[in-house]
Amino acid sequence: MRILSFTSRLAAAVTLGIATFSSAMAASSDYPSRPIQLIVPFSAGGQFDFLARVVAESMSKNLGRQMIVENISGAGGNVGGAKAANAKPDGYTLLEYGGNYAIAKYLTKNLSYDPLGDFKPVAAISLAPHAILINAKLPINSFEELVAYAKAHPDAFNYATPGVGTSMQLTFEEIKSHFGFPATHIPYRGGSNALNDLASGQVSAGIVAVAPAMPFIQSGQIKALAITGPERVQPLPDVPTISELGYTGFSSGSWAGIAVPKGTPDEIVERLHASVQAALSDPDLLARFDALAFTALPGTQADFQARIDDEAQRYGPIIERLQLQR
The pTM is what? Predict the structure, then answer.
């Protein structure tokens, strides 16, 4: 499957970004008048933190006000989510909103806020496909060989993820079910821990985002066998997608966007939406995304809402089947 031309994607993004940003500037010329807080609901140094800081840098320039990134981690993103949900809906507190919120109500009982109903979607930012990985010492060199090996070693084959209920676990369970092979889930507290144990042979396989896996792949400690996104990625052009391998149309990954507390005025939401679109048309930002296998997701607020709804409908039944609610 071909990798889409960076130049063609850039041209389309620039056109959309400029048009949207110019329109919204006229609609809300008095906003913002002070710095804006962007809550990242996970710790510094991870995928979400990287995305937030790159986008915030670009948005600060086109908004004319500093965007301050604040990491508020805990409870799978729910600590930061609750703080954002209870903030004044004036456009000065934003939340980096990901797939964890779309499925939060299925995973956690008695949340103090509604991760779906308490926010307005502003815009999607990016999608990062996952990589299906294997310890390099195992006699496995392709996804087909992984399936055969797992079937031949049903009691010993396992896979690592960054945690219970993550998009990585739910994605692997979908793939495992479709191809009909056994694998025991081994959850970790974060992707780096999962990768370290996969590289040392403590677990057989793993699934994480492409970017953090690259140093281990390049060192030869682990092998990448498949990509869960719709297309092959620049850092791993020879690694096929799950769709190419027989699960036609399959696509999954970690996505992120920006949301604001419900009640935020529409004209402010539109201004922020335009700022995100302008950021996603920045050639420097897009080049940084491409190098780490992030795909920019320019589009409308309705597009982002549809992504949120689809995620909940897709993974809610899997969470219930696996009895993951806690």
Answer: 0.80
